[in-house]
Structure formats: C-alpha cells, structure tokens
Amino acid sequence: MASVDESNEPDESNKSDDVGDNTSPKSQTDGRKRRDRIVRWLALLSLGVVPWVVIRTSGTTLLFPWGTIVLETEHVTLLPTFLDQPGPTPSFLRYWPLGSLAYALALCWAGARAVGLPADRRVTAGLLALVGVAAIGLSAGFGVDPNRTAYPLATIHAPLVAGWLWLSGAPRADE
C-alpha cells in the first residue's frame, strides 16, 4: 500500500517572502538608485531635444544645441553648417557654439562619472548653468530686432536641470 509521505512536500513555513520578487531592502535601494540614474540621464539629455531659444518672426525657428529648425519650411540647419557660412556673423551668435560646447562637455563629464571616473557633479551643474547664460545672450541678441521675439527656454531649463542634478546626487538619509 502506497502511502503519501508528507516529508517530501515542500515546507511552506521555510519559504522566504522575498524570493523571486524585489522587495528586500537591498534590492529596493538598488532599484531606486538605478531608476534615479536613468531619470538623471533623461533630464540631462532633455536639453538636447528641447529648444534652447524659440525665435518668432513671421515664422518660428527653434534653436537647439545641434542646429536650428524653421517650422514653416521644415528646414534644418546643423551648427557646423551654420558656422561654415561665409560672411560676417552677429556677435551674439557666438554664444550658440559656446553653449553647445558647454553642453557637450557636461554630457562627457556625466558620462565619465557614470563609468566610475572621479568626476564631480558640480562641474556638470556649472557647465549646464553656462548653457543657461549662453541662452540669455542668444535671446538678447535675437530680441533686438523689433519684428522678432526670442524666448530663452534654456535660461530656465538648463539651470533647473543643473540644480536638480547637483542636489539629486546628494546622499539620502536612508542610504
């Protein structure tokens, strides 16, 4: 006669509640750190896709760190192409490559920090603050013409991202 041996059954009282799910304190902290890193990178990269300056004349031109887009004609001019154009360039447009260089350096500095090199997050924040200053110079120059209005979005966006990146890197009380 075959009997059922209960000792072969798995003991439910010995199972851990956190096996297979990420609810242990260490995995929650690791998950939060990973999520925070992703959000910080998305905030930093947002400066590359949100226009730095919106220029309104009879049409609308969006100025990015990499180039411009004229919305009505959907014409794109990349920054290197713009800089290669012959003829005099207004002095305020020098802020554009300066801001783009500061942004590229901020990305490189943050990348160095992400791979474990000793890169201080305050440098990234300072470079992003410089992007905001460059946007002020650009929009002030574009705004001189009475038939043109410039809205410096990066003047607000870049320092907000810079401050948030700087403050978000501070250690938390529960870590």
Question: Could you give the topology of this structure?
Answer:
Blueprint: H1 25-46, E1 53-56, E2 60-63, E3 67-70, E4 75-78, H2 79-83, H3 95-114, H4 121-142, E5 149-151, H5 153-168
Antiparallel strand pairs: 1-2, 1-5, 2-3, 3-4
Helix pairs in contact: 1-5, 3-4, 4-5
Short description:
A five-stranded antiparallel sheet has the order 4-3-2-1-5.
Radius of gyration from CA coordinates: 26 Å
Sheet-strand content, in percent, reads: 5-15%
* CATH class type: Mainly Alpha
Q: On the 0-100 scale, what is the average pLDDT?
A: 80
Architecture overview:
The protein is α+β, with helices and mostly antiparallel strands. The chain has one domain (35-168): Butyryl-CoA Dehydrogenase, subunit A, domain 3, CATH 1.20.140. It has five helices and five strands; from the N terminus they run αββββαααβα. It has a five-stranded antiparallel sheet with strand order 4-3-2-1-5. The longest helix is centred in the N-terminal third of the chain and has 22 residues, at 25-46. The chain starts with 24 loop residues before the first helix and ends in a 7-residue tail after the last helix.
